[in-house]
Specification:
Helix 3 packs across helix 4. 85% of the residues lie in helices and 0% in strands. It has eight helices and no strands. By secondary structure, the protein is an all-alpha fold.
């Protein structure tokens, strides 16, 4: 029961202080579950991010569910998921009650401008940390360069290209290389 309470409070704190969506949450998750609580290793965290990003639903909820399940099974998944959702729900509910007055409040508009800068920093720092932790091999380097080039070209040419396609492409490439290596090993042993 104490473990479930710890999971609940940890994810409620993460949910309460995440501004900018799930990608901004990754930096907070990394700090909380790897650095402070030591619930998972960094390699497993990178795998969790990949799974959370590639499955349907918000990355924040998928990440919370994954980590909660890893720690305490179904109950842990339920607690983490519920906890990460509660703060956003309550904040949006309160804003909806006073929406018109909220939009006209100058301090709120200024605060959101400051929060935007913080969100950019959180996403960038998470990306840099994940890049540093990425296994340095030819496949990862080629995929990284191909995706960066595609993103740059799409940005310059103003072509809208969903990140889902990048994920599918990278996953398919990884599976293709796996089977190619497997076939090569079988041919060597014959």
């Amino acid at each position: 029961m104490k473990k479930l309470l710890t999971i609940f409070l940890t994810f409620m704190k993460i949910g309460a202080f995440t501004f900018g969506g799930g990608y901004a949450m990754i930096a907070l998750l990394e700090n909380e579950v790897i650095e402070k609580k030591k619930w998972i290793e960094h390699d497993e965290f990178l795998n969790m991010v990949a799974v959370a990003e590639s499955t349907p639903g918000p990355i924040a909820i998928n990440s919370a569910t994954y980590i909660g399940y890893h720690l305490a099974g179904f109950s842990g998944a339920a607690m983490a998921t519920l906890a990460v959702c509660i703060p956003s729900f309550l904040i949006i509910y309160c804003i909806s009650l006073f929406f018109e007055q909220f939009l006209n409040f100058t301090y709120v508009a200024c605060a959101f401008k400051g929060i935007q800068v913080c969100v950019i920093y959180l996403i960038l720092s998470t990306g840099i940390n994940m890049l540093k932790a990425l296994e340095k091999n030819v496949l990862n380097t080629c995929i990284l360069c191909a995706v960066m080039a595609a993103m740059l070209i799409c940005s310059i040419t103003a072509v809208s290209f969903s990140s889902v396609f990048y994920i599918l492409f990278c996953g398919a490439t990884g599976v293709f290389i796996y089977f190619l290596q497997k076939i090569r090993k079988e041919n060597i042993h014959k």
